[in-house]
Amino acid sequence: MKLGELMSETFDVVVTRGFSVPPEQVWRAWSESDLVKQWWGPTGFSCPVADVDLRVGGRTLVAMRAPAEFGGGDMYSTWTYTEVVPHARIAYVFNFADPQGNRLLPADLGMPPGIPDDGEHLVTFDDLGDAKTKMTVVEHGYATEEARDVSQAGLEQCIDKMEAIFTAPRT
Length: 171
Known about the structure:
β3 (59-65) and β4 (74-85) form a beta hairpin. The protein has a single domain (3-167), classed as 2-Layer Sandwich (Alpha-D-Glucose-1,6-Bisphosphate, Chain A, domain 4), CATH 3.30.530. α2 (23-31) crosses α3 (33-39). The chain is of the alpha+beta class. The termini are far apart. It contains 4 helices and 8 strands.
């Protein structure tokens, strides 16, 4: 491997989870604002804003609110959709943003190095039959293993919260 090739190496976050609900129901967790608010953000964080426009060219604006021990501030981001195949696939570009949805660069927010300016994400929903779904989320382009690992941990916690939506007792 040449030095230039080593310098361009990137790292991906990959989280796969099985759910005991059909793909249509897992899809709703991405397409309905009230459900996105229940899972977006790692453990202890809340989501006060989830303006969802799930269509090619559409954009979702989300905010995750830190708990008081982490300063309680809101961090906004957008998901701009490049591919939408209902109940099967969502591709989008993740950007940090201000409260109006204007793009901000990670470096401008004091983020550690290695986070992509434009994070390409892919979510797939595989119908396993018997009302079961395998969902895989891939985040591409982290420049360091450390940045990838932090994002991986946060995404796994988000998906834990999503899973709780499907396992909560119904009233």
